[in-house]
Structures are given as C-alpha cells and as structure tokens.
Amino acid sequence: MIKLAAIFLTLYSAAAFAVLEVSVVKKAEDAFPVVISPFLTKGDAKQGEIIAHIMRDNLNRSGEFKALDADHIISNQIDFDKWQARKIEAIVIGKLEQISSKSFNVEIELIDTYSKKTLYAKNFVVNNSGIRRIAHHLSDQIHFALLGEKGSFETRLAYVTVENKGNGKREYRLEISDSDAQNPQTIFRASSPILSPVWSPDQNKIAYVSFKNGRSEVFIQHPFMQRKTQKLPYFDGIASSPSWHPNGESLILTLSKEGNKDIYSYHLSSKNMSRLTQDSGIDTEASYSPDGNSIVFTSNRSGQVQVYIKQLKTGKVSRATFDGSYNAKAVFSPDGKSLALVHRVRQDYRIALLDIATKDLTVMTSNKLDESPFFSPNGRMIIFATNKTDGGVLSVVSILGQQTFELASKSGEVREPNWSHYSK
Fold first, then answer.
1. How far apart are alpha carbons 304 and 327 in whole angstroms?
2. pLDDT tens, 142-185?
3. Under a CB-based contact definition with an 8 Å cutoff, are residues 58 and 45 in contact?
4. How far is CA 217 from CA 10, 59, 233, 266, in A?
5. Contact 22/412 with Cβ under 8 angstroms?
6. Strands 185-190 and 103-112, bridge-based pairing
7. Which of 9, 30, 315, 343 is most buried, by the most CB atoms less than 10 A from its CB?
C-alpha cells in the first residue's frame, strides 16, 4: 500500500502583476489517456470545477498524459466497457462538499478501467485558500500512482519580468508563481536589471543578481518570511550566476575579483570563500550536481564556448560537450545523468539534452534564441526562456514526447526562469 502525505504551505501574500498566459505549441503523441470527471459538488460548485480543471491542465502539460473531461459526472457506477472501448486507461472521480464558509471536504478516487481496481483514494479537508494547492497535490498523486514517479506540480517557478514604462525607463520584477504559472506574486521590483534567480533546496529562499546599487551584486530573498533581504559581501569586479549547493549552506558564483572570471564557492554562515576554477580562460555559469560532488560550468578555455564538469574531490576537469562550437548554461538533471544546455545550431540557439555518459546530444527545440534552461524537480520537463518577435517568453518542453507550451505575459517580457525543488 502506498502511503502518501499532503504538504500544505501558506503562501506569501503580495500584489500580482504579470499573469502568464499558457499556450500549447506542440502536443505529445501516445500520451497516457485518463479522464478527470467533473466533481460531484455540494455547496460551491465552482471550487470543484477549479480542482478538476487544474488537474487536467497539469497532466496534459507534463507531456505524459492525455487528460480528458467527461461529458457527465461519473459516480461509483462506472461503465467500464464504455471507457475501455474509448481506450481510456484510468478515471478520476471526485466529490467536494462545503462544510463551512471557508472549508471544504474533498474526496478523490483513481480507478484503473481495465483491472477495475482503485489505484489511489483520499479524503481531505481544505481551506478555501488552499484549493489550487490541493489540485496540484492531487495531480502529483495521480502522476505517481500511474507512472510510479513523482510529479512536479506542487512546486513553484521564479522568473523575471521586464516592462517598458516609457521615456526609456523599465521596471524589472522578480516574481514567483505556482508550477502552472498561475497565482503570481511580485517579491522584488527595481528600475535596474534583475538576473539569475534560483531557488534554495528548501524552497524558502531565492538568490539573484541585482544592479540596484550600480553594480552586480548577489542578494537572497525570503519570499515566505518577513526577513530582511540578505546581501552577499561586495567582491571586486562582477558577481553573477549564483547557484545553491544541495545542502543549502553555500552558493557558487562567478566572480572577476582577480581580473578574470572564475568560479568561487561562498559559505553563508562562515563567510569563507574558496576558488574552484583557475584558468586563463573565462569560467562562468556554474551549478552543482545533485550530490554536490561536482560542478558543471561554461568555459572558453579550449578556444570555443563549451561545457565542462569538475569533480570537486579529485579536482579533475573534463570537457562534456563536443557537438558544435557553442554549448553553454548547462544544469544537471535531478538524477545527475543528463545536462540541459544551450546549443548553437548554425545561427540559432536552442535547448539541448546531453547524456553525460554517452555524450549523445538531442536538440529539444526549434527556436531562434533560447536561454536559461532548468529541469523540473522530477527531471521530466525543462523550462527555459525564448525570444519571440513581441519579446521574451518562457517555454516548457517535456522530455517524453517533446510537448511544448509557452508562458507569455501581457504586461512585458518574461525571462530567467527557475524551477523550485520539492517542498521539505
């Protein structure tokens, strides 16, 4: 019996500005067919519709499911022959009952249409403000029950929006949202650029680069706690591309403190600094492997822009990319076996997936200018920024089936995405 527990988080409340619109660019083929039935409701029927709608959108966006609506509410009396004839492999039925002015009882059951067995069933009491959260949580449970792996729906995105204000002025906003780009919240705004936001492993902090003091500096925000923004010490030259160690106790970043761009590690509590690369070439855009034993970074030390991996215990540096003359901005997959990176194809910059062991490189996109890839926590999707004729948007491509959807803002450009880890 699978034991699963719901995790509920209280969201930081802030004014929402850049609401992102989701557009499906390419649909996956041979996805897992499942029906999410309309919920049987007592009380506020709208909340039941919201849960079912979010669950369908989540599963479809993953590229692994073909989640359909039903033309009627499905109760315990299921016509299994009908659904088998339509090649539907699983059905989700739900009930929602309003038990007070602000709380609901939610029941859900996932049923295999061929074995006729219940694969997952749960009852919840949820506050009115937690409706979206419970929908994401249930989407994760369905993903796990059907595929045996975690979903990435009960997680968050961080990104930067840029809006022209006229007279040559721009407003930059650091924003967070649910994994479906809904429920956006602005946690920092400035008239100067914001770059490279990255979630901490515990999902409670975001490190980023800001030019608000007239130079590039690294800051740490606490979006869910009323704590003062932390600024890392000023280092001579440029500070850029922060990335967290898996234990959350230190950051690696690119510094030009000794006249050349190299990778450094900074321990937050001890304030100790250690230099991780020393080469006459430029080393930048580093991030840790999931076990913290190695880093991947971009370097021009070979005369081309390529991706390298350094084993921190032995100090061994090896080149990871060999296809093409430009590969950059690599990040490890959650299992540590692959890299997502920016790969140049003639004059275009696209997102590619590299198998570290075999060196096989697969181009995942067909755009002109893609940047800043990052894996979903389960490693099944990659979020990235891409430049369209009307400005920057975020896109997500699924590893399986390469389904693609875009997140665009009506109020400006969207850049620099990062996907949070699972909640602790």
1. 9
2. 999 999 999 999 999 999 999 988 888 999 999 999 998 888 99
3. no
4. 30, 39, 8, 13
5. no
6. unpaired
7. 343
More confident residue, 23 or 129: 129
Least confident of 20-24, 267-271, 294-298: 20-24
What's the per-residue H, E or C state across the chain?
CCCCCCCCCCCCCCCCCCCEEEEEEECCCCCEEEEECCCEEECCHHHHHHHHHHHHHHHHHCCCEEEEECCCCCCCCCCHHHHHHCCCCEEEEEEEEECCCCEEEEEEEEEECCCCCEEEEEEEEEEHHHHHHHHHHHHHHHHHHHHCCCCCCCCEEEEEEEEEEECCEEEEEEEEEECCCCCCEEEEEECCCEEEEEECCCCCCEEEEECCCCCCEEEEECCCCCCCCEECCCCCCCEEEEEECCCCCEEEEEECCCCCCEEEEEECCCCCEEECCCCCCCEEEEEECCCCCEEEEEECCCCCEEEEEEECCCCCEEECCCCCCEEEEEEECCCCCEEEEEEEECCEEEEEEEECCCCCEEECCCCCEEEEEEECCCCCEEEEEEEECCEEEEEEEECCCCCEEEEEECCEEEEEEEECCCCC
Q: Which two tokens stand for residue 149?
A: 């792996």
Residue type, 329: K
- The answer for residues whose C-beta is within 8 angstroms of residue 280's C-beta and 6 or more apart is 260, 301
**CB-CB contact of 161 with 193 (8 Å):** no
On whether the CB atoms of residues 74 and 418 are closer than 8 A, the answer is no
Strands 206-210 and 20-26: unpaired
Q: What is the number of residues in the chain?
A: 424
- What does each C-alpha distance from 109 to 46, 51, 249, 273 come to in angstroms? 20, 14, 41, 52
Q: How far apart are CA 43 and CA 41, in angstroms?
A: 6
**Residue 35 identity (one-letter amino acid):** V
Domains and CATH numbers, the chain: 30-147 (3.40.50.10070), 159-419 (2.120.10.30)
The candidate with the shortest Cα–Cα distance to 187, out of 222, 148, 146, is 222
